[in-house]
Amino acid sequence: MAVTERLYYSDSHLIEFEARVVDVTDRVSGWTAIVLNRTAFYPTGGGQPSDTGTLNGARVVECIDGGDQGVLHVVQGVAPARDALVKGRVDWPRRLDHIQQHTGQHILSQAFVTLFNGPTKSFRVLETACEIDIELSNPTTEIIERAVELANNVIWEDRSITILNVTSDEAAELPLRKEPAREGELRLVEIEGFDLTPCGGTHAYRTGEVGMIAVRSWERAKGLTRIEFVAGTRALADYRKANKSAREIAALFSTGRDDAPNVAAQTVEENKELHRRIRGLEELAAEVEAEKLLAGAREGVVMHVFAGRDAESLKKLAHALVVHPRTIALLGSRDKDTARLVFARSTDAAGDMSVLMREACATIDGRGGGKPDLAQGGGKNVSKLSDALTAAAHALRA
Ligand SMILES: [Zn+2]
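Above: query sequence and zinc ion SMILES. Below: predicted holo structure tokens.
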């Protein structure tokens, strides 16, 4: 007989029990692993996380399935001694959550088999959601929502869930949803008139206990369809979170929750249109500005330092300047700790802007380059920006 009698096999809702300590080992982590002659604690396995709880005063932080060595209860705090009698208590909210996710998975998986002949290849209970990987030839949101609808109907029909212990010969005669992963006696979980599958996890007494199932998202992954879902209390928590986000976004647009997507889409369109108009106006402004700067230029060289002007705006102005014949633009802009430079010349003017730019950038401790007719750069030494431009203008006249 196995070291540990697993009480959760016969009653998934048993959370208080008494047991005797049969083994105590100190773990490298400084914690202690306790083996009991019987336990209601479910150890990590089958996609379902471990239970937590207490053994007398000590905290059970994790349970590990040791196979023939029994269930290892990893405890923090004062560990009970070998042969001691202990009172165990499983954390019920966590167990209920796992029951809901795990039973929900049985129901959802069978819904995909019933409707679309799509078997589940793997299952995981994660921190806030669950994942199943399903073989689906043509996944769409509509197809997935049809399976979700069937699953919820099965939940609300409140069907009974029973455990059957059978031999492998008996199992071979039964229509199991998936092949058993082990030999010998098998534990089957039957959802009345809907699903029959081998499983060692903790399940609801009736499907109604699962509450509801909702799909958060899905994606194709490694040839399968990965579906992220939530069941029971997680579905309610997820609804609250989603509703809060949706209402906050709606408030930004001064509209109701359900109108927010349309209003937001409209605003995005308006924003794009405004950007187009701004670009047009900037070009117009650059043309006017270029005329003004040219009027004060000496020998066709326009040299000017602006405050807080971005590279795009400097380039626009440079373009507007060099459409005029025999014109050279030496433009700079300074922010608190950044200097920017754009040099350009009209096709009929002399001088290599990229050479001038490299020299100017050396002066302002930065980098830059480009082509003979257009170059740009920047640097950190803002105080040397005017010197760099003056030197470039001298070089042109030399
Ligand atoms: Zn199960």
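The first strand starts at residue 5 and ends at 6.
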